[in-house]
UniProtKB/TrEMBL annotation:
Protein name: CRISPR-associated exonuclease Cas4
Listed Pfam families: Cas_Cas4
Species this protein is from: Phocaeicola massiliensis B84634 = Timone 84634 = DSM 17679 = JCM 13223
GO biological process, one term: defense response to virus
Cofactor note: Mg(2+) or Mn(2+) required for ssDNA cleavage activity.
């Protein structure tokens, strides 16, 4: 269990899974820059992240910008949306002060693009779900993505494999943050889509020679 002083931003787990160096530049060195992809994402979330907006469609209620946290993972943040589905059972349900009855909560994450080939988005959604589970001592079997480019919802099972990835990621995040050391760059195709490419300089860092290597090569041979 982590203390409040040790809590890290939940949104960072997506950055860390994408690239530990990117995450460290953002959360340790406080570096940031925008590109087309990040701006499009901000525009989408501007219409979503309103904590005072609640939507009721039939028996279903949607809450926006909900604060969530997990002391086991050491994460805190805001969920884009949580859907409350009515239930006749008390098992794995919650109560809401404004809406009588029992409700099954489902985390909804909004993405401006389309499903990625890796599990970066899935890890973020799983982490949010695990936070909500801890807060209410319930089990939530799935979450939902809404992809802006596709205008389509996609359900995702929160598997044991995803949960283990989340646990390992958060452990690694806390270790890197405690050491305050920026991981080395590992250049790949993913770097071209990163808004911090000019700050990170992955190709330059990759080709940098350490002092020991330089001395051994140029002075001691």
């Amino acid at each position: 269990m982590y203390s409040e002083d040790d809590m890290l931003m939940l949104s960072g787990i997506q950055h860390f899974r994408f690239c530990p160096r990117q995450w460290a530049l953002i959360h340790i060195e406080q570096q940031w820059d925008d590109n087309r992809l990040t701006i499009e994402g901000q525009i989408l979330h501007k219409h979503v992240d309103d904590p005072f907006y609640r939507q009721k469609c039939g028996d279903q209620i949607t809450l926006r910008a909900v604060n969530i946290a997990s002391y086991e993972l050491g994460l805190y943040g805001i969920s884009d949306a949580i859907e409350l589905l009515p239930s006749l059972s008390f098992e794995d349900t919650i109560q809401h002060p404004k809406y009588p009855g029992q409700w099954k909560p489902v985390v909804v994450e909004y993405k401006h693009g389309k499903p990625k080939r890796n599990e970066v988005d899935e890890v973020q959604l799983a982490a949010q779900t695990m936070c909500l589970e801890e807060m209410y001592a319930i089990h939530i079997p799935y979450g939902v993505f809404f992809y802006g480019e596709l205008r389509h919802r996609v359900n995702m099972d929160i598997t044991d494999e995803l949960r283990n990835i989340v646990k390992q990621c958060t452990q690694d995040m806390h270790e890197v943050f405690a050491k305050a050391v920026i991981p080395k760059a590992e250049y790949g195709k993913h770097c071209d889509k990163c808004s911090l490419k000019d700050i990170c300089m992955p190709t330059m860092v990759k080709n940098c020679t350490t002092v020991d290597t330089y001395l051994n090569k140029n002075l001691y041979e």
